[in-house]
Design brief:
With 93 residues, this protein is of the alpha+beta class. Helices cover 17% and strands 30% of the residues. It has helices spanning 12-15, 40-51, and strands spanning 17-24, 29-35, 58-62, 65-66, 83-88. Strands 2-1-5-3-4 form a five-stranded mixed β-sheet, covered by helices on one side. It is found in: Nucleus. Its main location: nucleus. Pfam families: Rad60-SLD. One of its GO terms (cellular component) is nucleus.
């Protein structure tokens, strides 16, 4: 007899991890493992810390659209091994 007060297991699709790649303009690739529900602000902070650059210096793009920190991979229907482009702001002419 099952106890009706037990916690249900979370939906597998909501906790599934994705392996994402962040490719810099210089061609280097950094790999991240994130839940589909993790906000990009966390990934952006981690990438900038690894590269020793300010978050204000970088724009992150996926499929030609700029990523916002409050978005999640699930919102953008990202799949395993998708690539995010990291573009460094250029100063000068």
């Amino acid at each position: 007899m099952a106890d009706s007060g037990e916690d249900k297991k979370p939906d597998v699709s909501s906790t599934e991890h994705l392996n994402l790649k962040v490719r810099s303009q210089d061609g280097t690739t950094t790999f991240f493992k994130a839940k589909k529900t993790t906000k990009f602000s966390k990934l952006i902070s981690a990438f900038c810390a690894k590269q020793s650059i300010s978050e204000a210096e970088v724009v992150f793009m996926f499929d030609g659209e700029r990523l916002r920190g409050e978005q999640t991979p699930e919102e953008l229907d990202m799949q395993n091994d998708d690539t995010i482009d990291a573009m460094i702001h250029q100063v000068g002419g």
